[in-house]
Design goal:
With 306 residues, this protein is mainly beta. The protein folds into three domains: 59 residues, no CATH class; 75 residues, Immunoglobulin-like, CATH 2.60.40; 143 residues, no CATH class. The chain is 3% helix and 56% strand. Strands 10, 11, 12, 13, 14, 15, 16 and 17 form an eight-stranded mixed sheet that branches. Strand 23 and strand 24 form a beta hairpin. The longest helix is centred in the last third of the chain and has 6 residues. The protein is flat. About 4% of the residues have low confidence.
């Protein structure tokens, strides 16, 4: 459903009863919206305020329902997509409409490389730019809501990071709940590189590996920025009795290292903060359900080339 800025449209909420009948409860629900800058909703009427997209929510008794509403000038559409560098999403890219209906609109990609433009139609030209990358221009037809992905090329020489490193993780100074042995851990890290993508396999410890998790993680090289994700799957799998991506057997329990690393190159390798958790589990075998002790924060992450 869509409405134009400054215009209104009705919405109807029907409730299905246990006896099979359906009742219009529009006037009885409690309304809310995910973004009041984009639209307002009250009494079964939505009013567009500014171009964009928002969810409206209707609550009746102990039930609720929601739907997405687009706010667009009449006869225009939503154009969305992902900007990538060799298949990896690029954040901070400015995507602008430089020709056609919607000229002057622009958006900046999020951490996943996604952008959204509201109010585009017909034959348009897009321009994508980011410092350190070659500008990219795309011509396309927009006759309905659609996606258009953009591939960009790094303008400089991409860092070559493949090789063998000593990887050391040191817990933040406030992590007094961890044992001294758990506060600093070192491993051998074997790094393979395929364009912007990095694959890290660890050796030098007794890792608990299950279903491909436990002794490896992925990373990316975006421009000159290096990002690693040791244990990024942990936050989902932890709560559902699953596995972590970096798990070391640490008698009588196990050690988890999980989070996100934003690293920079040095003369000897890579260094940066690991934002996440270092923790000792309550059991030594998966599935791991909780920590006996854990410390969250910015930990030191260093990879020294051998």
């Amino acid at each position: 459903m869509s409405v134009a800025p400054g215009t209104s449209a009705p919405v109807v909420v029907n409730a299905s009863r246990s006896d099979g009948t359906v009742a219009d409860v529009t006037s009885l629900v409690t309304w809310s919206t995910s973004d009041t800058r984009v639209l307002e909703v009250a009494g079964g009427t939505v009013r567009g305020k500014d171009r964009g997209e928002a969810q409206i929510f209707a609550r009746y008794l102990n039930r609720s329902a929601s739907t997405a509403i687009l706010v667009l000038p009449e006869g225009t559409f939503k154009l969305a997509g992902v900007v990538t560098d060799e298949g990896t999403g690029l954040d901070g890219v400015t995507v602008a409409v430089i020709g056609g209906t919607g000229e002057g609109l622009s958006a900046i990609t999020d951490l996943s490389g996604s952008y959204r433009l509201y109010g585009v139609a017909g034959s348009v030209r897009l321009h994508a730019k980011k410092l350190g990358y070659e500008n990219r221009t795309e011509a396309l037809e927009v006759t309905t809501h659609r996606t258009a992905d953009i591939r960009m090329s790094f303008a400089g020489e991409r860092p070559r990071l493949a090789g063998t490193y000593e990887m050391t993780v040191t817990a933040a100074s406030h992590c007094s709940s961890l044992t001294s042995a758990a506060r600093t851990r070192s491993y051998t890290a074997n790094v393979e590189q395929d364009g912007a993508r990095l694959s890290v396999v660890l050796t030098g410890a007794d890792f608990i590996v299950s279903d491909g998790f436990g002794d490896r993680f992925e990373g990316t090289v975006i421009g000159d920025r290096v990002t690693f994700r040791p244990g990024i799957d942990f936050y989902y799998y932890f709560y559902y009795l699953g596995k972590g991506s970096l798990v070391e057997r640490f008698p009588p329990t196990a050690l988890f290292i999980n989070g996100m690393v934003s690293a920079r190159q040095t003369a000897t390798g890579l260094t940066g903060p690991l934002s996440g958790v270092i923790g000792l589990t309550r059991t030594a075998t998966p599935p791991f359900t909780s920590f006996a002790s854990a410390c969250y924060g910015g930990h030191d992450f260093v990879m020294t080339r051998r």
